[in-house]
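REVIEWER CHECKLIST
Item 1: Sequence provided? yes
Item 2: Single chain? yes
Item 3: Sequence as submitted:
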Amino acid sequence: MKRPTSASQESEVSAQGRSLTGRLLEILHSWWPVAAFLVPVLAAQTIWSGRYEVAGHAADHLQSATPVFPMIFLSAVLLWALPGRGRRDRLLLLLLAAAIASCLVVLVGNVRVIEAIDGANWTDAQASQLGPARFGFESGHDLAQLGAWGAVLATMLAAGLLWRRRLVSAKAAAAAAVVSLVVPSFIAPGAGIVVLTVSAAVAHARGDRRLARNSSVSLS
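Item 4: Structure as written out by the authors:
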């Protein structure tokens, strides 16, 4: 039995390298919009957060103010991953806009609390005792909570709509609703958007693979 020559081995390795490079280029070609969405959102969040130098209870509120940035990113990826009829669905666009707007309300409420604290390095206990005497402290908390529940409701409605439109499975829609309710709204309001986006992205990737296989069959 003949052993493969070194030339044939080099040819096989070279072919594998070209195949790997081709796959990487295919992935970059298919998924570059995700990076295009992510980079400006991260830059905007970094610039905005850099405006504040806070510690203690105020630092917690600064972190709680940021869900609008991932909500914008995930909504953009979700719309990109959906088929054309999903991207053109006006009701879905309205619900995603409502989720983003609700997260903006969360941001405004938390900023109001940060400004009420006015640079003081309070612990949570000190904030509970001293905060109510500061203008904007309690109203900021109330506003942030209202926005958080608005994001939860908009995300759950979006999950139901996507299921009714047969753009995500019943399991994905139910999981998105459960995650939105289970994950504390003051930590990640509307967290179910992650489930919807991942589900749509997986379906998008499978569609790309089927398209690639069909193209290769037709070419051959």
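Item 5: Key structural point noted by reviewer: The chain has a mean pLDDT of 86.
Item 6: Recommendation: ____
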